[in-house]
Amino acid sequence: MASYLESEPPSPGESSGDESQGVEATRICEKMKLNQRLAAKELVNTEAKYVHNLQLCASDIRSHLHELPQGDLDVIFSNIDDIIKVNSRFLKDLEKAGSEEEQISLLGNLFLEFQEEMENTYKVYCACYNQALALVETYRKVPKLQKVIHDVITALVPQACASGLSFLLVMPVQRVTRYPLLLQKILENTPPDDEAYEALQRATRAMQEVNSNINEYKRQKEIATKYNKLEHLTVRERLARINTHSISKKTLRLSQLFKQEAGIVTRTEDREFDDLEEKFHWVALCVNELKSNVAAYLDHLETFLRIKPYECDLEMEGGAVQQYCCFTRDLHLLVFLEFKQRLERLVYHPLHHLSKALLGPQNLIKKRLDKLLDFERTEEKLAEMGSMTYEEEAIRHTYQALNSLLVSELPQFNQVAIQWLGQILNTLMALQRDLAQQVLQRAERELGQLPHSHVSDFDFRKLIEDTLDKTSAQLQSFCQNFQKVLPVPVRQPLQPAAERQVQALMSKYSPSKLYQVTSNISGSGNLALTLQKGQIVAVLQDRDIKGNTSRWLVDTGGYRGYVPAGKLEPYQVVPHDKPSMQSGSGDGFKFLPVETPRSSTHVAMPVFQVVAAYPFVARSNYEVSLQAGQSVTVLERQDKKGNPEWSLVEVNGQRDAFKNIILRRGP
Amino acid sequence: MSWIPFKIGQPKKQIVPKTVERDFEREYGKLQQLEDQTKKLQKDLKKSTDADLAMSKSAVKISSDLLSNPLCEQDQEFLNLVTALDTAMKRMDAFNQEKVNQIQKTVIEPLKKFGSVFPSLNMAVKRREQALQDYKRLQSKVEKYEEKEKTGPVLAKLHQVREELRPVKDDFEAKNRQLLEEMPRFYNSRLDYFQPSFESLIRAQMEMFRGQLAMELEIQEKKP
């Protein structure tokens, strides 16, 4: 019986179901085709409208907003022109297709063709979109400019006036995200056996890929900006950022670092990145070193410019001195000053900016290391547990984004930095060249007026040497002349009372110890005497108890005390009845050659100790005065020219330790 | 040159005529100013040459630090550039050193020698002043005795004092005359003395920059 039911032939309803199935299938097929066509048409139409609006925005609206600064307009509209170009071409190709069927088969391939271009243009626009929005927002707050924007938009795009510029700017962002959706709709309504199916499928996937790439790119850019901003935080802001979350984050990182250092955990080696980082480090080192060296050079230049030898006044009109002063003043105030300013502007400031630009990447590299530690921790966890929380996924993504950003951008940065450095160095050399040229120009002019301009450098040097030798000899003679204005030891005849005092002193001490006070001495302190000028005293010791040789112990005949040695002069006792001997007639001396080979401390030649029989008055620097009975030591029996009438002797008891004199000897 | 001390109608202490004294003051004043200026010039020149040397030394540091950076090993172009800069700086330093030596020899040394005459001059002027004081003192003594009653002992004293006075007066006169002769001569000698030095100063600068420019142009031509 059961089989009765089964073996029954298909009921008429079923056969009609077959039929209806076929009709159904066709209907569905028709519907699908219709939907497909509609979707395709929607795509094409919206594309046309989109491009039209874009052009409106870019050309008309932007050109009317000339009240805004160009820089801001660039930020707001960013690379909208590129987008227009790409999409216009896309639209044109789309409209080339004749029938609708052709269009659909064209669609897929066209998208694949344009995929890369679209990705490159849209990713730039989308990355800048936030910034553009922020700028528009700030303009909204400025009523006057906001009104201008509003008016322009109302005139050109009436339906958008309510939301303002932001409505228009969001169009590309919306469009690129719609492509996958539109394509999906067409795909749904395309039978799999359709020739265009495969292309459409690939196109849909391609556009989805484009969108995710744009997202990734945007995220990278955002990370870079975020960490770049960090360096501008003040201390207070930094402190405010410390909370339990950040502390725990940092502690975890630290522990990871320790684990690596201890070898518990292997460190991820990234050769490529390490090389890049090393190069970056060298670049940074180079820039900073150069900057500080140039700063030092500028300092020295400034010091040099502050010194002004040309401001001397030797009361010499004209001539080389005047020329020199003018020349050097010009150099300092014009040529060197200009050199310094150019150096600052063209070398130091660029270096300074370059150095600042280095801070961003440096910060990012630091952050990457931190994120790497986090990443490695999550890797561990992944190995252990096989899954991650949402947070951990985020950490991984951050690290990967940062890493890929650095790897892609650092080489370029290094390259640009090195190029910049090269240019700066070239500038430095060019500046030196210019300086030399300018100085020479002026110097050549001056040289023409100098007396020896035709003389070569080498000859001039010889000439100068000779001249200087001559003038030096001249100076010597001046010096000697002035020295000849010598004190003729003026002996004033003494008052009788003083005379008696001198006699008293002479009876106690040898005449060589007698000194005369040359100027009034006022004593202060221990045992210091107060003496008048002209008083005669006898020196007991040429140093005081502390060994100070500028204070001598003297005896005035009544008192004893200390006086400054500088105010004492050796005194010659002259018997009254002897006229002063200035004429230098032959005075005889009788020698009592006492040949006690007195060992004179310095002179290692045979010396005699002689006693002067008669007094002698010196007439010049090279002669010394003697008193009768004064003992002297003969050092040489002849004078320098071999004249036996004069001898070189050494006299003790003078204020100077040795006074070599020429002594006239009699027969 | 003899001047007679006026006893009648003049203040007692006036023994040197105002004109002579004024001349002396003027000449000495000029020389004092010259002394100050030469000292200042000498100091400034020394400081200037020191600063000059410091500058070129720091320029050499710029290029040698660059040369020691590892970037030079990696980038051939950079290396060429830095080597060129280094050569330029080092040669400039050599030129500069030579210039400073030349200046030292032909300007600063002579200035020093010139300045060394002044101490002797000042001593001589002091001694003249001393002699003048002695002279004045004795002169006033003579005048004092002359005014007294001409008694025997007074006359004897007067004679004695006059005897004392004479050598002192001669001494002062001699000193005064000598200085009045020598000072203007010395002052005028500065013209002949300084001109060559300053000429040498300008030429030394020129020599250096000429050499430097030639070298730098040579380096520039060598570059590709």
From TrEMBL, chain A:
Matches recorded under CDD domains: RhoGEF (cd00160)
Ranges of biased composition (kind: Low complexity): 13-22
The entry's keywords: Coiled coil, Guanine-nucleotide releasing factor, SH3 domain
Record keyword Endoplasmic reticulum present: no
Matching PANTHER family: NUCLEAR FUSION PROTEIN FUS2, RHO GUANINE NUCLEOTIDE EXCHANGE FACTOR 37
Transmembrane spans: none
DH domain span: 35-217
Pfam family, one: SH3_2
Region (Disordered): 1-22
Recorded GO MF terms: guanyl-nucleotide exchange factor activity
Domain SH3: 510-573, 605-667
Gene that encodes it: ARHGEF37
Domain BAR stretches: 258-456
Gene Ontology CC terms: cytoplasm
Naturally occurring in which organism (per UniProt): Monodelphis domestica
Source taxon at top rank: Eukaryota
Protein name (database record): Rho guanine nucleotide exchange factor 37
PROSITE patterns xref list: BAR, DH_2, SH3
Coiled-coil intervals, chain numbering: 200-227
